[in-house]
């Protein structure tokens, strides 16, 4: 006997998957309600709650074409996690990136967020994220989970799947009235206690307890022709996080034998060489700290979600759906920080470990004159809004033929929600820093220096910057597809589609490079700044109790200090963002036409199997238009800073196109009734990030005396990454809610867009470093390392001559003023970042997954482990720009389950191994950034008071895990973050 043909999940997702998958549970429920389910009067086993969700999830996995995993909500409006990304991490092969203790983006099978496509009800969704401007990765923190009925993760390619997901295509399915006929409604409330909010200064704290409210209503007419569903939620979260480290990375790396005046360690026999313990070997690479920073941040978020769905079935052969989805995510951030910058002087004292690539264990400097203790504050807010309006019609004109049309218009928009811009910083300083030491042998880096002398050197305004970022993405998409039964067990699937995607990003920056002091210290009353005990904000980190840790974190009210500074300077516009115009304005448009054809059939052979063979063809046209801001001068304003001044505007336009032919083969064989073997082969693509494609040259606003300037430019002609995939999977469904599976996969990736650094001069910009005035200073006793000496000499001896203007004396005793590059000075060298299709890579891995219920005991377990490997590794001993796959890491999950009629309990542990997060550090240099291994425990407990009323208790990050990133060596701390557990207690009432 031939098995029934299993239709594709993507079709079911748009035309009614939830109803189909819920059939077993609904049938059992109908029997329980007294409706006949057959001739037998035997007792029926009613499957509800977590077990019903597990059973529906296994049905989805078992009946799929290709390798698919997912999660089905156990009840309408009751998804198992409060965050969709945190639900996805329970699936084998899926890892998440966290922001402020909450799941945000996903990595699947070693491929990062930009190479995983997220669909909403089968539709490609736009995304915007100001923290990752112009990326393609979907931010799951914008979506509440209450309206979600399923998550489907397609790990293998199929002809009918939209392109863009090499790691996976993730389909988020919302509840629809025809999926659950009849009246269903519920209201839920939660109180949220985020303990991270308790560990920020009192003046920054939000509410101790915040609310969450959600509701869902779904109803269908008695004749089944009309349906309406409405869901809404509002969530407020007040939280905080505290972070310490060398955010801007390290200077270097340098070769132990190198002699570069002003940057490297003194060589044997030179002054200062005696202060080096266990000097790096001659052939070793070493790095020197650049700046040390401690900061505390308070974050308040308000998230509003809603969806309205109408369904109409005029005849049983035609179902139409009109839906509107809305989400708004507002985030307000207050941050205060303490930092010091190191000068890399010959007076340094340092101790080093042995090895070929090293960073110091301790590093100390002394200065001839007092330096600055930097006191920085930020106060900004952003808003992200997503809207989607869609229409779907599914028609069965005759037996064996199904047709479907789907269209939507969706937007995502992010921008500033504050008069102070999308991000900002006011830098203040007390010029009273003496000798300073940094100890990197603890989990928390220990900065030691004498207390600030606020009597003789009060805190005063220094530099500042005000950013205004904006991004908008629009997707207009139409899809038509059909299924034609051509034989008893064979179907022909076909479809065409058109997608118009546009992404616009703008950016402006107002910056004051008055790092030596914007005005007089007397302009700032001492009452503006409050002293706090620094160690209390890092009490979970080893080393926080060190008596050597600098004792004070200074906080201040951003609005008050901004106003005082603007008044003292006499220029309000200099201390507000520029909302009127943009320094950069870039728009990228992608228009893709597609068509596919696939043939599915069941084979009545000795080993029955099902095959799906398809081909997808796509043609994409790209148009890039960018506004650029040319630089017109380089001005030396502080010890090591060379700000670029800009003037005028220019525009560039570029067009490109490409075509892809993408075959896909999916086979599955029934080894026996409870066991499947799957094999898949095909080609998938992942498009480059928008900022990699968008043309337009952008200069870094500040160049460095020693390292020069930075710039970046995209490449609109980049082709997508093309991946040739092979997958095998063995699945044993030994019980209705139990499975044991093993999956193997291999991906060969070509056309990877590698980041390339080009050293070049731009816009005929000349730097005073190395010019005639500079050389005169060297000839009169200054060294290249002592940039203060050079500036003092030039300002004192050449004031009033071309390019030189002395304005006074700074708080640290150094002369203040500007030195502008002249046409006779050297051209400034820029390290320009661009992209090219010049990289290839491969990724292989294995997934082991088990889901088991222990009979009728109510106890169960879900566990999985994912191993991923790529021969392409980042070489820490290579100082050049390198290509490597980001996000590649092993991961594991263990979830313990207990459920009976009254109680449901889930205890989940998620672990992710160390991975490479970036190949460029916080200062734009080519350098690795690794995220350390991380494990988190989450708990949820539910109690059903009766069939209508239930209570929930949830704990997120119960083990109070901390996060850490490091550089070329495991000891080179870049940042370590402390947050805290989050607790939620709530109630839900079903009407």
From TrEMBL:
Localization (cell): Cell outer membrane
UniProt cross-references to PROSITE patterns, sorted A to Z: PROKAR_LIPOPROTEIN (PS51257)
Residues passing through the membrane, by range: none
Domain of life: Bacteria
Sequence ranges assigned to domain TonB-dependent receptor plug in this UniProt record: 61-162
Residues making up the signal peptide according to the UniProt record: 1-27
Keyword annotations of the record: Cell outer membrane, Membrane, Receptor, Signal, TonB box
Pfam family, one: TonB_dep_Rec_b-barrel
Residues covered by the TonB-dependent receptor-like beta-barrel domain: 489-958
UniProt cross-references to InterPro entries, sorted A to Z: Beta-barrel_TonB (IPR000531), Beta-barrel_TonB_sf (IPR036942), Plug_dom (IPR012910), Plug_dom_sf (IPR037066), TonB_rcpt_bac (IPR010104)
GO-annotated cellular components: cell outer membrane
Similarity section: Belongs to the TonB-dependent receptor family.
Listed name of the protein: TonB-dependent receptor
